Amino acid sequence: MINLKKEKNPMPEQDPAVRASNFREVAEGYTPQMAVNEAMRCLKCRTKPCTKGCPVMVRIPEFIAKVAEGEFEEAYQIISDTSALPRVCGRVCPQENQCEGFCVQRLKGEPVAIGRLERFVADWHAEHEAELEAADDDEAEGAVRIIAKNLPGAGHKVAVVGAGPAGLTCAGDLALKGYEVTVFESLHKPGGVLAYGIPEFRLPKDIVAAEVEKLEKRGVTFVNNAIIGRAETVDELLEEGFEAVFVGTGAGLPSFMNIPGENLLGVCSANEYLTRINLMKGYLPEYDTPVQKAKRVAVVGGGNVAMDAARCAKRMGAEKVYIVYRRSMDEIPARAEEIHHAIEEGIDFQLLKNPVSVVGDENGYVTGLECVEMELGEPDASGRRRPVPKDGSNFVLEVDCVIMAIGTKLNKLILETTENLKANDRGGIGTTDKAVTNRPEIFAGGDAVTGAATVILAMGAGKTAAAGIDEYISNLNE
């Protein structure tokens, strides 16, 4: 049976008036019947166009068909064949620009809710995992031990630098091939941007911890508080017996506008603000985490990070929160769902506005953000219409906190401390389409190569690198 309904089945959410003051997850997920109903909207296209938009090559029509039949565990196994983090991807991937962007249903209505279905399937598996495994636990463990000895990677050591989406995916794929994988993470918890950047109300941290625990059960070792390039170098890891190294260090250095007043008290980067709240639990009263409890906040930028910072500020008690973005709503890069949620929660969008200075008092504290109105001119290199300031249109937003969310820069520590490692034209680590660098034993992927991008693209890069590392080590031992 094919459901020709033109719109997605809505997913239950917390009421905006309630959720704007708590950090619980906004979306509450499909029920089994909702999931089946949504899966039945799939037209079962022979050409499977939706798969073209998935960087980790999930067999989307196959898993959706299983959901429609009520075979949720079989659907999960199909997804997990290629995706290491399905509970994460179902929540934070920009599906509207990827898999759902290719769905034929969108031509006459809304695409099939592929992301919501992936989330449902992964959550269903997590909820029922214990009972599914209980009956044959001892047998399964024995089988894993026997199989591990016969896998192609058995006896070979690989180092992964960075426990973000790229590193976790690379580690997971290599572990499944039997490699002995050690992941080195600079922070005190694995997860990278999943842990420090994305707020609890979008991605609960117990989900990230559970995904890390799965990798540990596969044999992956995590070493936290290890800054590769400082504590030891990539070259030293290779000298210690690792046969290959994957670098997935991300792009975590914040960018600023270099306008007057940016050094005033009350100005910070979104990286710092979100890290204090998400990783250091600044939203919980029992944690002694220094984080400003501002009354009026301006967040500069229009991406997902800006939405996260603005919505966090609201939950931290701000009476007024502005998004200051220099283009219009048509050009704003954040996910449509995040913009929709922000508007529902009372975030004030100051569009076609651009900061020119931060205003402060005699004690050095922020009192306002001076902006200028903009108008859109000819397209720039990105293809979006270039914003041009209007003469004499300056005005001041009265705020006591300014959060800069205008992008991040690449951390060049690995490039600077690894002998003869070459950069690409973006300033990141240079790689081929197989994720290998100019040094054949070093691989790289994710934001460390491309600059700031999405979780799923980083995962795709980690997957590519794992295949490349397996090929490299296999060829060494022929």
Short description:
With 478 residues, the protein is α/β, with parallel strands linked by helices.
How would you portray this structure in words?
The chain is α/β, with parallel strands linked by helices. The protein folds into 3 domains: 16-134, Fumarate Reductase Iron-sulfur Protein, Chain B, domain 2, CATH 1.10.1060; 150-252 and 410-476, FAD/NAD(P)-binding domain (3-Layer(bba) Sandwich); 254-408, FAD/NAD(P)-binding domain (3-Layer(bba) Sandwich), CATH 3.50.50. It is 35% helix and 16% strand. It is built from 17 helices and 16 strands. It has helices spanning 16-19, 32-39, 60-68, 72-80, 86-92, 114-134, 137-150, 165-176, 193-196, 205-217, 234-239, 270-278, 304-315, 336-344, 413-417, 447-450, 455-476, and strands at 157-161, 180-184, 221-223, 244-247, 253-254, 267-269, 296-300, 320-325, 348-351, 353-360, 366-379, 385-389, 395-398, 401-404, 408-409, 442-444. The strands form 4 sheets. A 5-stranded parallel β-sheet has the order 3-2-1-4-16. Strands 6-14-7-8-9 form a 5-stranded parallel β-sheet. Strands 10, 11, 12 and 13 form a 4-stranded antiparallel β-sheet that branches. Helix 8 packs parallel to helix 17 (455-476). It starts with 15 loop residues before the first helix and ends with a helix. Residues 138-147 have low confidence and may be disordered.
